[in-house]
UniProtKB/TrEMBL annotation:
Domain ABC transmembrane type-1: 58-265
Subunit text: The complex is composed of two ATP-binding proteins (CysA), two transmembrane proteins (CysT and CysW) and a solute-binding protein (CysP).
Membrane topology: Multi-pass membrane protein
Record field: transmembrane: 55-84, 96-116, 136-154, 194-220, 240-260
Database matches in Pfam families: BPD_transp_1
Keywords tagged on the record: Membrane, Sulfate transport, Transmembrane, Transmembrane helix, Transport
Name of this chain's protein: ABC-type sulfate transport system, permease
Chief location of this protein within or outside the cell: membrane
Amino acid sequence: MIRIGYQRTVRRVLIGAASLVALWLLLVPLIAIVAQAFAQGVQPFWASITDLYTVKALLLTLLVAVITVPINLVFGVTLAWLITRFSFPGRRLLQTLIDIPFAVSPVIAGLLYLLLYGTNGWLGGWLADHDIQLMFAWPGIVLVTLFVTCPFVAREVIPVMQVQGRLEEEAAVTLGANGWTLFFRITLPNIRLALLYGVVLTNARAIGEFGAVSIVSGAIRGDTSTLPLQVQQLYQDYNIVGAFASALILALLAVLTLLIKALLDRYAQQHTEGE
């Protein structure tokens, strides 16, 4: 019997089709961003990326990612451990609730947070009385970003932990391992690649989130405008070079994230082979 993958013609067609799709969907847009960013030369590009509002938008974007990723890393691992290692009433419901950010539009999520924490929201009066401002400030941006990115780590880790099972962990507990030893010596080595994918996805979404952030931030330039919002504002101002220069920064951040992931993958593989 001849398998489809062993037929030379079929294999070449599939490889060619995949290459064309990747070229059209990934490489061409990147080339277009670079071309538009440098359309008027290096000097306008440099002036655009060193613009004060763009720099502040970049710093705010990085701040949101730096806060969001560690929180969702801990949250995702805890949630995955809870779902895969314990049986309790409502376990299936909890597993379903994880997917709510996937099902709810980010714009709707932003509106819900505004309804809850805004000046006229359910908790807005209490927050105002205690001089706490969440909406139209960076804490609100962090809150909605946590919401839209919370499933990524858990969704990557849960299937791996389900396949891994509990036998190794139960054996370690029998031999006297405590909780931290159990996690760092048994569980973490088995889920580290899934964790890496989850962190990469969380970071990418945190950096590029637009819909929910646009609702709760107010998009105040130099204050609550993140880099994706800055791209839109510059484009609406007909500052094409500035918009594509900011978009190029976002693309470079994404590439940098992938490079870090590849290096960590390589390190993890070498570490595994070394063992």
